[in-house]
Amino acid sequence: MGQAQNQIPNAEELLKTTEGSERIALLKELSRLYMDTNPDKSIEYAKEIVILNASNPIEKSASLYNLGNLYRRVNNYRLALDCQNQALEIRKTINDQQGIASSLNNIGEIYKTLNKSDEALIHLNRSLEIRKESGTQKEVAYTLNNIGSVFWLKKDYGNALEYYLKALEIRSELGDKSDIASSLNNLGNVYKNLNKPNKALDYYSKALEIREEIGDKTLIAFSLNDIGGIYWRLNNFNESLAYYNRSLALRKEIGNKLFIAATLKNIGTVYKDLNELDFSLKNYNDALKIYDETNDQKEQANVFSLIGNLYETYNNFDKSLEYHKLSLTIHKRIGNYKGIAYSSNNIGEILMKYYPDKEAKDYLLLAFDHANLCKDRSLQKIASENLFEYFSNQGDYKKALEYFREFSSTQYDSIVDQIDKDKIAEFEANYQISKNKDEIKSLKAYSRQQSIVIYLFVALIILAGIIGYIANKNIKIRKEATQALKEKNNELEEINSLLKETEVSLRDLNLTKDKIFNIISNDLRTPFNDMKLMSSKLLESFDQAKIETQKDLSKNIKDLSFQTYDLVENILLWSASQSGKTKFSPRLFNVKELLDHSLTKLSEQLVEKNVKIIFNLDSSSKAYADTAAICEVFKNLLSNAIKFSYREGKITISAREKKYWIELDFSDEGVGMSKTNLHKIFRLDNNYLALGTAQEKGAGIGLLLCKEYVEKNGGKIWADSEEGKGSSFYITIPKSDKLMGSVPKVEDQ
């Protein structure tokens, strides 16, 4: 990003004296350079390109197409559509079939974003027809994927899954890893919306693994953000924050403001659920600043709604109403029906529950009307349920019954959705990409057969509900039925989660077994062979009376014995932890004192290399964890730092106090490591080993032990390094039991 910024002044200076085709090339480059940092500037340069290409139909259509994409990036969909339609008409006149397909595809994507699914499908299907005849397989898969996304937005997950799998089948045959990862991510989106978080997490993780292998930071950030969202749904807020913060760091490095704001918004929501009002507000406000800079009014309104929800959780209803009304004003100004429905519903709910104000009815009716306009079933359900409650409270039972019918209709949709979800899950579990398309057809046929039974069954339920309500206004049956469905769904979800956990556990056990066997067969065999050889040489030296040789060999044997002992100890500790035999007893302890205790075990290594330890921490800092486990973590991190430090080097131990945890930094000035190897060090299945500056050996088991112990004590561990400049290892330790998760609390000692 810095390099791009450095290129801009030179390019703009050249632009003053450049004409013709060279000027167009320079304008294209400037538009590209400004794309992420200053979209408005990027658009201005793209407009000039359109003007300069006015006499060349091919180039003009291409420049209009690119300008439309830029307008789409800044959410100006009206101008984006205008540019794409102009490009389409030009391409039709010159019979550019591939260009026509591209324009149709982009127009379909814009309509998809605007929630105009019918128009989106018309354009995307026309694009697909052309691409099947004259396009590449990659383009066909791309359009199939877009059609799947339209069905996904319509919550038609059966068709979404069908098109996503068709796209994945082609992409798998082509072997395009980036596109395969995109398809896997889309499958994750389907299962996220089907409330199958563990299934979604599996697909998101596979996509992340491929994207990390490719090294595409933009897509890695997307996957990290998606995984953070799943952990948030699972109420694992620490893990959610870890992934969101990794995504945020990458997005700041890339410099795309809108993506940065989106992640800040997510982090703010996690802090809201952690009851951290200050942190939540800070992140929401940071996101608002970016949306204000980029003039993204829709997202500004969405953040105002989030802040309104935040204040409502703290029972500050005046503030909550203030922000929801700000949100509603913006949504009305930009004509966002879904936003109007959402904001007015929030306002109506608060007024109905906490204020003796008849104004609630106006907002609730506004929400209901706009929920119907945007055809969002979840908003329709909420709006009709709120109006039913409002008119029931007012004693207007005729009106209440009217909205009860509307609510019952959405409940019917929910029952159909639930049956569809179960069939989709069964279909995907048995579906293999290599199978023919008959399975999908048979699934649809089965769906049609079952729908008749479903309609009759649900109609009887609705009729019984209405009769029961008119008779004695008893809605208990409806609640019990809903609860029963929910409990059944939770039961099935729990079974799926247990199966998933078992699968992950078995996979980890296999990796653990393989790792231990590898260490025993290779890493333990080598030092013992070395000791055998040295011992033999030592015995031979007695006959020759070579005192210096004997001293060197004895020292080598001693050093090797200590290294081997440490290796065996780490293997035993790690194996015990993997098998669940390690018991953790957290308590408050002094961080500096535990560091000093750990260093006493490494005094000989420090003296041998003459490495200096520099402390940069408060000697009174305290943390809350199992001291035996954290002592092993300190020992391993310091031992590694010494191993990879040069003689007479220095190691700095720093500590930063956070609100709920302490962050420790162990930094050396040693050999460092490449970014590729940095990604391997905490992985069970890695084969990365390195020798220390004095040829010290290790099996990599120590860092696995550190990760295990830190995470089981409620913290996290990560590293940063640069070849030739040293490494920094970071860990966080809770300051109290607030973020300790499942670690049991004991009394202070």
UniProtKB/TrEMBL annotation:
Matching InterPro entries: HATPase_C_sf, HATPase_dom, His_kinase_dom, HisK_dim/P_sf, Sig_transdc_His_kin-like_C, TPR-like_helical_dom_sf, TPR_rpt
Xref: SUPFAM superfamilies: ATPase domain of HSP90 chaperone/DNA topoisomerase II/histidine kinase (SSF55874), Homodimeric domain of signal transducing histidine kinase (SSF47384), TPR-like (SSF48452)
Enzyme type, top EC level: transferase
Keyword Coiled coil attributed: yes
Family annotation (PANTHER family): NEPHROCYSTIN-3, TETRATRICOPEPTIDE REPEAT PROTEIN (AFU_ORTHOLOGUE AFUA_6G03870)
Organism listed in the record: Labilibaculum filiforme
Name of the molecule in the record: histidine kinase
EC number assigned by the record: 2.7.13.3
Endpoints of the signal sequence: none
